[in-house]
Amino acid sequence: MKRLLVCVAATAALALTGCSDDAPNNDGAAAAPTTQESLPPQTGPAPTKPGASPQAGCPVDAATLEKAFVANLEVSNAVDIGKGLTDISCADNWATAMTQPEAVDKATVLFQYDTAKKQWLALAGGTDGVCRSQVPADVVKKLKNC
Questions:
Q1: How many CB atoms lie under 10 A from the CB of residue 91?
Q2: Is 98 helix (H, G, I), strand (E, B) or coil?
Q3: What pLDDT shows up at residue 3?
Q4: CB neighbours (10 Å) of residue 112?
Q5: What kind and span of H or E run contains 128?
Q6: I need a surface site. Which of 56, 65, 95, 112 has the fewest CB within 10 A?
Q7: Are the C-beta atoms of residues 99 and 85 closer than 8 Å to each other?
Q8: Which segments show compositional bias classed as Low complexity (predicted)?
Q9: 122-129, long-range: CB within 8 Å, 24+ apart, which pairs?
Q10: Residues forming a β-bridge with 86
Q11: For the CA atoms of the chain, what is the radius of gyration?
């Protein structure tokens, strides 16, 4: 942090003194600050998507679920994800997504959001009955791919 402040101060000093022999272009408008100058570094948790609470996993995007899929070797070795996950459905910290394989049948992948770790976990994948023994009945009704 100390180094960042020194760099910002040095940059500001250079901007004030100038670095060329050209006459300054003063058209009366102040230069807009760059993104780095106008935004402080993020120190807290990552921002959530609109409509999501910090404690909940929904809504969730394909990239996030694909990371969880790859992290579970048992699921990722058993299911061909193909071109990635699509047709995501999310409810009450549970999510399903469909795979996009090229040479085999599409499969459903089941995910659950771990509120303690604040991350998605891939639980199971397959072509039939993926949600049956793991997802509560009231949530199954809300998930499109169960």
A1: 18
A2: strand
A3: 34
A4: 19
A5: none
A6: 56
A7: yes
A8: 23-33
A9: 122/65, 122/68, 122/69, 122/71, 122/72, 122/75, 122/76, 123/72, 123/75, 124/75, 125/69, 125/75, 125/78, 125/79, 125/99, 126/78, 126/79
A10: 98
A11: 24
For 146, counting Cβ atoms within 10 Å of its Cβ (0-12 exposed, 13-18 middle, 19+ buried), the class is buried
Neighbours of 59 (CB within 10 A): 14
In the predicted model, residues of the chain with pLDDT beneath 70 are 1-56
pTM above 0.70, yes or no: no
69 and 99 in contact (C-beta within 8 Å)? no
Using alpha carbons only, what angle is made at residue 129 by residues 82 and 140, rounded to the nearest 5 degrees? 100
pLDDT at 22: 45
Q: CA-to-CA distance for 28 and 80, rounded, in angstroms? A: 60
pLDDT at 65: 97
